[in-house]
Amino acid sequence: MPGGQQQPPYGSPWWTDALNDPWRDPQAPSAVVLPPPAPTGGPALDPIPDPDAPRRSYTPILLICLVTALLAGGIGGTLGFVFAVRGGYVTGGGTTLGASGQEAPQSVNRAPDSLAGVAERVQPSVVTVHVTGAIGSGFVVSADGYVITNDHVVDGAGETMSVSFSDGSTASAKLVGRAPESDIAVIKVAKSGLPPVELGDSDAIAVGDSVLAFGSPLALENTVTYGIVSALDRTIEAGESGGTTRYYAAIQTDAAVNQGNSGGPLVNAAGQVIGVNSVIRSVGGTETEAGNIGLAFAIPVNQAKRIAQDIIDTGKARRTVIGAEVSGGGTGTGGAKLRSVEPAGPAAAAGLKAGDVLIKLDGHPLQDGTDLIALVRKHAPGAVVAVEYRRGTKTQSASVTLAAVTN
Protein backbone atom coordinates (compact mmCIF):
# COMPACT_ATOMS: atom_id res chain seq x y z
CA MET A 1 0.00 0.00 0.00
CA PRO A 2 1.17 3.61 -0.48
CA GLY A 3 3.20 4.94 2.45
CA GLY A 4 4.42 1.46 3.18
CA GLN A 5 1.33 0.61 5.32
CA GLN A 6 -0.14 -2.82 5.05
CA GLN A 7 -3.79 -3.62 5.21
CA PRO A 8 -5.06 -6.03 7.84
CA PRO A 9 -5.40 -9.54 6.66
CA TYR A 10 -8.69 -10.61 5.10
CA GLY A 11 -11.16 -11.80 7.65
CA SER A 12 -9.91 -9.43 10.32
CA PRO A 13 -12.48 -7.22 11.95
CA TRP A 14 -10.24 -4.40 10.93
CA TRP A 15 -10.48 -5.31 7.27
CA THR A 16 -12.23 -2.91 4.99
CA ASP A 17 -12.22 -2.28 1.31
CA ALA A 18 -13.40 1.20 1.70
CA LEU A 19 -11.84 2.46 -1.49
CA ASN A 20 -13.70 -0.08 -3.58
CA ASP A 21 -17.00 0.08 -1.53
CA PRO A 22 -19.49 1.85 -3.77
CA TRP A 23 -21.82 2.48 -0.82
CA ARG A 24 -19.24 4.10 1.33
CA ASP A 25 -19.86 7.67 2.32
CA PRO A 26 -16.53 9.36 1.95
CA GLN A 27 -17.57 11.84 4.65
CA ALA A 28 -18.56 9.18 7.18
CA PRO A 29 -16.18 8.75 10.10
CA SER A 30 -14.23 5.60 10.58
CA ALA A 31 -15.82 2.88 12.75
CA VAL A 32 -14.61 -0.24 14.40
CA VAL A 33 -16.83 -3.18 13.60
CA LEU A 34 -17.05 -5.80 16.40
CA PRO A 35 -18.92 -9.11 16.44
CA PRO A 36 -22.44 -8.86 17.99
CA PRO A 37 -22.74 -9.79 21.70
CA ALA A 38 -24.37 -13.05 22.81
CA PRO A 39 -28.17 -12.81 23.25
CA THR A 40 -29.51 -12.24 26.79
CA GLY A 41 -32.77 -13.20 28.49
CA GLY A 42 -34.80 -16.41 28.15
CA PRO A 43 -34.40 -19.61 30.19
CA ALA A 44 -31.00 -20.34 31.69
CA LEU A 45 -29.25 -23.40 30.35
CA ASP A 46 -27.31 -25.83 32.53
CA PRO A 47 -23.74 -26.25 31.51
CA ILE A 48 -23.11 -29.36 29.51
CA PRO A 49 -20.87 -31.72 31.50
CA ASP A 50 -17.63 -32.84 30.01
CA PRO A 51 -17.96 -36.58 29.25
CA ASP A 52 -14.22 -37.06 29.53
CA ALA A 53 -13.89 -35.44 32.99
CA PRO A 54 -12.92 -37.88 35.79
CA ARG A 55 -15.93 -39.05 37.94
CA ARG A 56 -16.08 -38.55 41.77
CA SER A 57 -16.41 -41.76 43.86
CA TYR A 58 -19.47 -42.01 46.22
CA THR A 59 -18.19 -45.02 48.13
CA PRO A 60 -16.90 -43.06 51.22
CA ILE A 61 -20.22 -41.20 51.52
CA LEU A 62 -22.25 -44.41 51.40
CA LEU A 63 -20.05 -45.99 54.05
CA ILE A 64 -20.51 -42.98 56.37
CA CYS A 65 -24.32 -43.10 55.97
CA LEU A 66 -24.41 -46.84 56.65
CA VAL A 67 -22.36 -46.56 59.83
CA THR A 68 -24.47 -43.63 61.08
CA ALA A 69 -27.72 -45.54 60.49
CA LEU A 70 -26.44 -48.60 62.34
CA LEU A 71 -25.34 -46.52 65.34
CA ALA A 72 -28.68 -44.63 65.49
CA GLY A 73 -30.69 -47.84 65.28
CA GLY A 74 -28.68 -49.51 68.00
CA ILE A 75 -28.93 -46.59 70.41
CA GLY A 76 -32.69 -46.11 69.73
CA GLY A 77 -33.44 -49.80 70.25
CA THR A 78 -31.51 -49.90 73.50
CA LEU A 79 -33.28 -46.82 74.90
CA GLY A 80 -36.69 -48.14 73.83
CA PHE A 81 -36.10 -51.44 75.58
CA VAL A 82 -34.97 -49.71 78.78
CA PHE A 83 -38.09 -47.47 78.86
CA ALA A 84 -40.38 -50.40 78.10
CA VAL A 85 -38.95 -52.46 80.95
CA ARG A 86 -39.21 -49.57 83.39
CA GLY A 87 -42.80 -48.90 82.32
CA GLY A 88 -43.77 -52.52 82.76
CA TYR A 89 -44.69 -53.14 79.13
CA VAL A 90 -42.14 -55.93 78.76
CA THR A 91 -42.05 -58.82 81.18
CA GLY A 92 -39.99 -61.94 81.41
CA GLY A 93 -42.81 -64.01 79.90
CA GLY A 94 -43.25 -61.90 76.80
CA THR A 95 -44.80 -58.65 75.72
CA THR A 96 -48.20 -57.45 77.01
CA LEU A 97 -49.65 -54.33 75.41
CA GLY A 98 -50.94 -51.77 77.84
CA ALA A 99 -49.97 -53.70 80.98
CA SER A 100 -48.65 -51.63 83.85
CA GLY A 101 -46.71 -54.44 85.45
CA GLN A 102 -48.89 -54.03 88.56
CA GLU A 103 -52.10 -55.67 89.63
CA ALA A 104 -55.11 -53.75 88.32
CA PRO A 105 -57.05 -51.89 91.06
CA GLN A 106 -60.47 -53.26 91.95
CA SER A 107 -62.04 -49.78 91.78
CA VAL A 108 -61.11 -46.31 90.65
CA ASN A 109 -60.21 -44.01 93.53
CA ARG A 110 -61.42 -40.41 93.51
CA ALA A 111 -60.81 -37.57 95.94
CA PRO A 112 -63.53 -37.49 98.63
CA ASP A 113 -64.48 -33.93 97.72
CA SER A 114 -64.82 -34.66 93.99
CA LEU A 115 -68.25 -35.28 92.48
CA ALA A 116 -67.41 -38.97 92.11
CA GLY A 117 -66.26 -39.05 95.74
CA VAL A 118 -69.52 -37.43 96.88
CA ALA A 119 -71.57 -39.89 94.83
CA GLU A 120 -69.67 -42.84 96.28
CA ARG A 121 -70.25 -41.57 99.81
CA VAL A 122 -73.97 -40.76 99.46
CA GLN A 123 -75.13 -43.68 97.30
CA PRO A 124 -75.29 -46.29 100.13
CA SER A 125 -77.78 -44.04 101.97
CA VAL A 126 -80.18 -43.78 99.01
CA VAL A 127 -82.98 -46.32 98.66
CA THR A 128 -85.47 -47.29 96.00
CA VAL A 129 -88.98 -47.43 97.47
CA HIS A 130 -91.21 -50.20 96.07
CA VAL A 131 -94.94 -49.85 96.67
CA THR A 132 -97.86 -51.51 94.97
CA GLY A 133 -97.58 -50.73 91.28
CA ALA A 134 -95.14 -47.85 91.74
CA ILE A 135 -91.55 -47.00 92.43
CA GLY A 136 -89.91 -43.99 94.05
CA SER A 137 -86.83 -42.98 95.99
CA GLY A 138 -85.84 -42.03 99.51
CA PHE A 139 -82.84 -41.56 101.78
CA VAL A 140 -81.81 -42.88 105.18
CA VAL A 141 -81.74 -40.29 107.98
CA SER A 142 -80.96 -42.53 110.96
CA ALA A 143 -78.95 -45.67 111.58
CA ASP A 144 -82.05 -47.46 112.92
CA GLY A 145 -83.85 -47.24 109.57
CA TYR A 146 -85.89 -44.03 109.26
CA VAL A 147 -86.20 -42.92 105.65
CA ILE A 148 -87.56 -39.66 104.22
CA THR A 149 -89.49 -39.78 100.96
CA ASN A 150 -92.37 -37.96 99.25
CA ASP A 151 -95.93 -38.39 100.38
CA HIS A 152 -97.04 -38.99 96.82
CA VAL A 153 -94.61 -41.95 96.62
CA VAL A 154 -96.42 -43.80 99.42
CA ASP A 155 -99.89 -42.48 98.66
CA GLY A 156 -102.16 -45.51 98.33
CA ALA A 157 -99.47 -47.92 99.47
CA GLY A 158 -100.85 -51.17 100.83
CA GLU A 159 -99.36 -53.54 103.34
CA THR A 160 -96.58 -54.49 100.95
CA MET A 161 -93.76 -51.98 100.90
CA SER A 162 -90.05 -52.58 100.53
CA VAL A 163 -86.82 -50.81 99.77
CA SER A 164 -83.69 -51.81 97.91
CA PHE A 165 -80.18 -50.49 98.51
CA SER A 166 -77.29 -49.69 96.21
CA ASP A 167 -75.56 -52.95 97.11
CA GLY A 168 -78.55 -54.93 95.83
CA SER A 169 -79.91 -55.90 99.26
CA THR A 170 -83.59 -55.39 100.12
CA ALA A 171 -85.67 -54.95 103.25
CA SER A 172 -89.31 -54.56 104.14
CA ALA A 173 -90.62 -51.20 105.30
CA LYS A 174 -93.67 -49.70 106.97
CA LEU A 175 -95.26 -46.27 106.89
CA VAL A 176 -94.59 -44.09 109.96
CA GLY A 177 -96.50 -40.94 109.02
CA ARG A 178 -97.41 -38.49 106.25
CA ALA A 179 -97.75 -34.76 105.60
CA PRO A 180 -99.79 -34.75 102.36
CA GLU A 181 -99.98 -31.00 101.77
CA SER A 182 -96.21 -30.62 102.27
CA ASP A 183 -95.51 -33.86 100.31
CA ILE A 184 -93.27 -35.41 102.97
CA ALA A 185 -93.56 -38.94 104.39
CA VAL A 186 -91.43 -41.08 106.69
CA ILE A 187 -91.08 -44.86 106.44
CA LYS A 188 -89.17 -47.25 108.69
CA VAL A 189 -86.95 -49.95 107.19
CA ALA A 190 -86.67 -53.29 108.99
CA LYS A 191 -82.90 -53.07 109.10
CA SER A 192 -80.41 -51.45 111.47
CA GLY A 193 -76.86 -50.24 111.18
CA LEU A 194 -77.68 -48.21 108.07
CA PRO A 195 -75.49 -45.28 106.95
CA PRO A 196 -77.50 -42.05 107.31
CA VAL A 197 -76.98 -39.06 105.06
CA GLU A 198 -75.56 -35.78 106.31
CA LEU A 199 -78.23 -33.09 106.32
CA GLY A 200 -77.19 -29.62 105.16
CA ASP A 201 -78.71 -26.16 105.51
CA SER A 202 -81.06 -25.24 102.67
CA ASP A 203 -81.06 -21.60 103.82
CA ALA A 204 -77.31 -21.40 103.07
CA ILE A 205 -77.44 -22.33 99.37
CA ALA A 206 -77.23 -19.91 96.47
CA VAL A 207 -78.17 -19.87 92.82
CA GLY A 208 -75.33 -21.43 90.85
CA ASP A 209 -74.28 -23.94 93.54
CA SER A 210 -73.44 -27.39 92.18
CA VAL A 211 -75.86 -30.19 93.07
CA LEU A 212 -76.29 -33.94 92.53
CA ALA A 213 -79.69 -35.62 92.28
CA PHE A 214 -79.95 -39.26 93.43
CA GLY A 215 -82.72 -41.75 92.84
CA SER A 216 -84.31 -44.28 90.52
CA PRO A 217 -85.68 -42.39 87.51
CA LEU A 218 -87.81 -44.60 85.27
CA ALA A 219 -86.89 -47.50 87.58
CA LEU A 220 -83.18 -47.11 86.78
CA GLU A 221 -81.84 -47.62 90.28
CA ASN A 222 -78.64 -46.02 91.59
CA THR A 223 -78.78 -43.10 89.17
CA VAL A 224 -76.90 -39.85 89.82
CA THR A 225 -77.34 -36.67 87.78
CA TYR A 226 -75.55 -33.34 88.00
CA GLY A 227 -76.63 -29.71 87.75
CA ILE A 228 -76.80 -26.40 89.54
CA VAL A 229 -79.28 -24.54 91.69
CA SER A 230 -81.31 -22.59 89.15
CA ALA A 231 -83.61 -20.62 91.48
CA LEU A 232 -84.74 -20.46 95.10
CA ASP A 233 -88.23 -20.23 96.63
CA ARG A 234 -89.92 -21.23 93.38
CA THR A 235 -93.55 -21.49 94.49
CA ILE A 236 -95.56 -24.32 92.95
CA GLU A 237 -99.07 -25.71 93.44
CA ALA A 238 -99.45 -29.33 92.35
CA GLY A 239 -101.61 -32.37 92.90
CA GLU A 240 -103.94 -34.80 91.25
CA SER A 241 -107.45 -33.81 90.24
CA GLY A 242 -109.76 -34.48 93.18
CA GLY A 243 -106.80 -35.31 95.41
CA THR A 244 -104.55 -33.43 97.79
CA THR A 245 -103.27 -30.04 96.70
CA ARG A 246 -99.59 -29.67 97.55
CA TYR A 247 -97.61 -26.45 97.89
CA TYR A 248 -93.87 -26.05 97.44
CA ALA A 249 -91.47 -23.16 97.99
CA ALA A 250 -88.94 -25.19 96.10
CA ILE A 251 -85.30 -25.27 95.14
CA GLN A 252 -85.21 -25.26 91.35
CA THR A 253 -82.41 -27.18 89.65
CA ASP A 254 -81.46 -28.20 86.12
CA ALA A 255 -80.23 -31.65 87.21
CA ALA A 256 -82.00 -34.33 85.20
CA VAL A 257 -84.96 -35.61 87.26
CA ASN A 258 -87.67 -37.96 85.99
CA GLN A 259 -90.49 -40.18 87.25
CA GLY A 260 -89.03 -42.35 90.02
CA ASN A 261 -86.67 -39.65 91.33
CA SER A 262 -89.39 -38.49 93.71
CA GLY A 263 -88.25 -38.64 97.33
CA GLY A 264 -84.57 -38.91 96.47
CA PRO A 265 -82.01 -36.47 97.88
CA LEU A 266 -80.65 -33.35 96.24
CA VAL A 267 -77.07 -33.05 97.48
CA ASN A 268 -74.60 -30.17 97.49
CA ALA A 269 -70.92 -30.39 96.53
CA ALA A 270 -70.01 -31.23 100.12
CA GLY A 271 -72.21 -34.33 100.09
CA GLN A 272 -74.92 -32.81 102.31
CA VAL A 273 -78.61 -33.22 101.52
CA ILE A 274 -80.20 -29.84 100.83
CA GLY A 275 -83.51 -30.92 99.33
CA VAL A 276 -85.98 -33.69 98.50
CA ASN A 277 -86.58 -34.10 94.76
CA SER A 278 -90.33 -33.87 94.32
CA VAL A 279 -91.69 -32.18 91.20
CA ILE A 280 -90.80 -31.67 87.57
CA ARG A 281 -92.15 -29.42 84.87
CA SER A 282 -92.57 -30.94 81.44
CA VAL A 283 -94.09 -30.38 78.04
CA GLY A 284 -95.72 -33.83 78.24
CA GLY A 285 -99.49 -33.98 77.92
CA THR A 286 -100.04 -36.08 81.04
CA GLU A 287 -98.09 -36.82 84.21
CA THR A 288 -97.12 -40.27 82.92
CA GLU A 289 -95.71 -38.68 79.75
CA ALA A 290 -93.72 -36.07 81.65
CA GLY A 291 -89.96 -36.10 81.19
CA ASN A 292 -86.96 -34.03 82.13
CA ILE A 293 -86.54 -30.71 80.32
CA GLY A 294 -84.12 -29.19 82.81
CA LEU A 295 -86.75 -28.00 85.29
CA ALA A 296 -86.86 -29.92 88.57
CA PHE A 297 -87.93 -28.85 92.04
CA ALA A 298 -86.95 -30.03 95.51
CA ILE A 299 -88.45 -29.39 98.94
CA PRO A 300 -85.86 -27.52 101.06
CA VAL A 301 -84.30 -29.94 103.54
CA ASN A 302 -84.84 -27.60 106.49
CA GLN A 303 -88.58 -27.89 105.91
CA ALA A 304 -88.41 -31.63 105.23
CA LYS A 305 -86.30 -32.27 108.34
CA ARG A 306 -88.71 -30.34 110.59
CA ILE A 307 -91.74 -32.22 109.26
CA ALA A 308 -90.00 -35.60 109.42
CA GLN A 309 -88.95 -34.97 113.01
CA ASP A 310 -92.57 -34.21 113.94
CA ILE A 311 -93.67 -37.48 112.31
CA ILE A 312 -90.97 -39.54 114.03
CA ASP A 313 -91.69 -37.94 117.42
CA THR A 314 -95.48 -37.87 117.34
CA GLY A 315 -96.61 -39.80 114.26
CA LYS A 316 -98.12 -36.60 112.86
CA ALA A 317 -96.81 -33.45 111.22
CA ARG A 318 -97.57 -29.84 111.99
CA ARG A 319 -98.47 -27.40 109.23
CA THR A 320 -97.47 -23.74 109.49
CA VAL A 321 -100.32 -21.24 108.98
CA ILE A 322 -100.85 -17.48 108.98
CA GLY A 323 -104.47 -17.62 110.15
CA ALA A 324 -106.15 -16.36 106.98
CA GLU A 325 -107.65 -17.60 103.73
CA VAL A 326 -106.72 -16.18 100.36
CA SER A 327 -108.96 -15.45 97.41
CA GLY A 328 -108.60 -17.65 94.36
CA GLY A 329 -106.83 -16.23 91.31
CA GLY A 330 -104.69 -13.14 91.09
CA THR A 331 -105.57 -9.56 91.87
CA GLY A 332 -104.47 -8.22 88.52
CA THR A 333 -101.90 -6.00 90.20
CA GLY A 334 -99.98 -8.69 92.09
CA GLY A 335 -100.29 -9.79 95.68
CA ALA A 336 -102.35 -12.29 97.69
CA LYS A 337 -105.75 -10.96 98.71
CA LEU A 338 -107.06 -12.12 102.07
CA ARG A 339 -110.60 -13.41 101.74
CA SER A 340 -111.04 -13.95 105.46
CA VAL A 341 -109.01 -13.62 108.65
CA GLU A 342 -109.41 -15.85 111.71
CA PRO A 343 -110.35 -13.69 114.67
CA ALA A 344 -107.79 -15.21 117.04
CA GLY A 345 -105.18 -16.13 114.45
CA PRO A 346 -101.71 -14.73 113.73
CA ALA A 347 -102.85 -12.43 110.90
CA ALA A 348 -105.55 -10.83 113.06
CA ALA A 349 -103.09 -10.40 115.92
CA ALA A 350 -100.83 -8.47 113.53
CA GLY A 351 -103.69 -6.16 112.52
CA LEU A 352 -104.47 -7.69 109.12
CA LYS A 353 -108.06 -7.67 107.86
CA ALA A 354 -110.11 -9.31 105.13
CA GLY A 355 -109.57 -7.48 101.85
CA ASP A 356 -105.92 -6.66 102.57
CA VAL A 357 -103.56 -7.57 99.76
CA LEU A 358 -100.25 -8.97 100.95
CA ILE A 359 -97.51 -7.96 98.48
CA LYS A 360 -94.36 -9.20 100.28
CA LEU A 361 -93.47 -11.85 102.84
CA ASP A 362 -90.00 -11.52 104.36
CA GLY A 363 -88.99 -9.44 101.35
CA HIS A 364 -90.18 -12.03 98.82
CA PRO A 365 -92.69 -10.53 96.34
CA LEU A 366 -96.09 -12.24 96.25
CA GLN A 367 -97.94 -12.63 92.97
CA ASP A 368 -100.92 -14.66 94.19
CA GLY A 369 -102.25 -16.86 96.97
CA THR A 370 -100.03 -19.82 96.00
CA ASP A 371 -96.94 -17.75 96.80
CA LEU A 372 -98.29 -16.87 100.24
CA ILE A 373 -99.29 -20.43 101.20
CA ALA A 374 -96.06 -22.01 99.97
CA LEU A 375 -93.77 -19.48 101.61
CA VAL A 376 -95.67 -19.60 104.94
CA ARG A 377 -95.36 -23.41 105.04
CA LYS A 378 -91.66 -23.21 104.39
CA HIS A 379 -91.21 -21.48 107.76
CA ALA A 380 -91.34 -23.21 111.10
CA PRO A 381 -94.25 -22.58 113.47
CA GLY A 382 -93.40 -19.68 115.77
CA ALA A 383 -91.30 -17.89 113.16
CA VAL A 384 -91.80 -14.12 112.95
CA VAL A 385 -92.13 -12.85 109.38
CA ALA A 386 -92.37 -9.32 108.02
CA VAL A 387 -95.24 -8.60 105.64
CA GLU A 388 -96.10 -5.67 103.41
CA TYR A 389 -99.70 -5.18 102.37
CA ARG A 390 -102.04 -2.81 100.59
CA ARG A 391 -105.18 -1.56 102.23
CA GLY A 392 -107.04 0.67 99.85
CA THR A 393 -104.47 3.03 98.38
CA LYS A 394 -102.01 2.78 101.25
CA THR A 395 -99.10 0.38 101.69
CA GLN A 396 -98.42 -0.75 105.25
CA SER A 397 -96.23 -3.28 107.03
CA ALA A 398 -96.62 -5.67 109.94
CA SER A 399 -94.89 -8.53 111.74
CA VAL A 400 -96.72 -11.84 111.96
CA THR A 401 -95.88 -14.70 114.33
CA LEU A 402 -96.83 -17.86 112.43
CA ALA A 403 -98.75 -20.65 114.13
CA ALA A 404 -99.22 -24.38 113.50
CA VAL A 405 -102.01 -26.85 113.03
CA THR A 406 -101.66 -30.63 113.09
CA ASN A 407 -102.49 -32.65 110.01
N-to-C span: 154 Å
What overall form do the CA principal axes indicate? elongated
Looking at the overall shape, the CATH architecture of the domain at 198-314 is: Beta Barrel
Helix and strand run: HEEHEEEHEEEEEEEEEEHEEEHEEHEEE
Q: What percentage of residues falls in helices of 4 or more residues?
A: 10-25%
The value of Rg in angstroms is 47 Å
Number of helices: 6
Describe it for me?
This protein is α+β, with helices and mostly antiparallel strands. Among the domains are: 115-189, Thrombin, subunit H; 198-314, Trypsin-like serine proteases (Thrombin, subunit H); 318-406, PDZ domain (Pdz3 Domain, Roll). 17% of the residues lie in helices and 32% in strands. It has helices at 59-87, 115-122, 151-154, 301-314, 346-349, 369-378; strands at 90-91, 94-95, 126-131, 134-140, 146-149, 162-164, 170-179, 184-189, 198-199, 210-215, 223-238, 246-253, 265-268, 272-280, 296-300, 318-321, 324-326, 336-341, 357-361, 364-365, 384-391, 394-401, 403-406. The strands form 5 sheets. The chain has a 6-stranded antiparallel barrel with strand order 3-4-5-8-7-6. Strands 10-11-12-15-14-13 form a 6-stranded antiparallel β-barrel. The radius of gyration is 47 Å and the shape is elongated.
